[in-house]
Amino acid sequence: MSSDTQTAQEAQPAQDVLTFADLSLSPKVLSAVADAGYPHPTPIQAGAIPHALQGKDVLGIAQTGTGKTASFVLPMLTRLEKGRARARMPRTLILEPTRELAAQVEENFIKYGKNHKLNIALLIGGVSFDEQDKKLERGADVLIATPGRLLDHRERGKLLLNGVDILVIDEADRMLDMGFIPDIERICEMIPFTRQTLFFSATMPPEITKLAEKFLQAPVRVEVARAASTATTVTQRLVSSKSKPWEKRDVLRQLIKQEEETLKNAIIFCNRKVDVSELFRSLTRHEFNAGALHGDMDQRARMTMLSNFRDGKLKLLVASDVAARGLDIPDVSHVFNYDVPIHAEDYVHRIGRTGRAGRLGKSFTIATKNDTKYIDAIEKLINKSIEWLDGNLSTIEESAEDESPRRGRGTSRRDTRKDESAEKKSRSQRQRETTTDKAGNDQQKPSASVSERKPREETNSRPVKPAHEHGRNHRRHYDDDNGSTPVGFGDDIPAFMLIETKI
Ligand code: AMP
Description:
By secondary structure, the protein is α/β, with parallel strands linked by helices.
């Protein structure tokens, strides 16, 4: 892969001089962009669109929030104005790692393609095959798919990929995280070599560089600076806490109450899915208006949760990074990090959900003594130290291991009693949910909001790796459920469970 390289400096601000009319887009597309209210292209758009219109391969290094979706949607729409689709032979294909991102791309095609009469087919899990088959049968100008569902359709003989002229691989590094690279390689090999490929990734780890080298031909490389700074309009604070989950939850509740006056809505980030569910249940028990968003929830629950949050019906959204990443969630007044993110750049993404477009925002990061090295990494990345709200970690004394939940800062006795009884109730409920399978092994039943295990792209969770893939998926584990806390008992594992037994 040889490539021309362009580097755009800023991620968000639109370029002042350049307008969309300078980019050779068709009048229909320009009119839709004008209606969307965007006068100037963002750097990734300014860098990628002219080359994409010329039919060149593009390697775009940009993350969500930079306007990268329009950077491939707009030139595709212009190029699709000539020609028409044939049954079961889509003309273009966009691969997305998750259902939400695929649905967002479809929304972009609808928004910018309102002056075109294009057939759009969305092939994602969690939706019946029949409707999708009908759309394919009609002939799709634009096919947006997650890799697993696309391959399912192909294996059922309902889809031919040899008519694809433009292939978009979006969020390639996330595809890697989710174990989709072998699927992507298979799909790329099914599409004619003469196609145009537009390839986007926020980062370029070696596996992604290799993939790009294999499947792109003389691409133009357009790079947008990585997010390494947080907006000056966001007030950031670290909040020290003891490390037991109930102690952290207690601190969080106090913070939410304390911020009541200015808190319009908030996203609360957890590192693991299991904590998203746990915290959501706890907040609900405490009568907070909360919802949850994580990769194991079924599609309908995720969409409903998001739209309720967007519409203001939900005030608090507890989310994992993977579920929330890339989603176009409107500006929020507060971000709470229930856990300090393990990857420093996730901190920047999380905080970036508030303080948008010059508005004021607040973020609070709950930190325990185990988080010191992650805080150091974040402060190094954003190149400033974050102020502590009320005393740093040196003032924290951990409770004894076997101590039951106790009052945290400023907590009333009533609150603590309520939390203790709610925790006890939840533990016994979860113990009831633990059933025994035929082999006599303990099994955890999924809770109401958590669906059965679905094919990989349907759940957003990392799939089981094929043997030859071991060692590839090593980068992100924070959304796994395999943390040290055994599900079903919380942190309180009865001693007898820890005794080794001979079978
Ligand atoms: P994306 O990076 O594609 O997820 O886009 C992030 C957000 O930027 C979306 O809400 C878009 O509607 C918005 N957007 C896209 N293009 C522009 C533009 N040229 N100017 C301002 N906002 C834009």
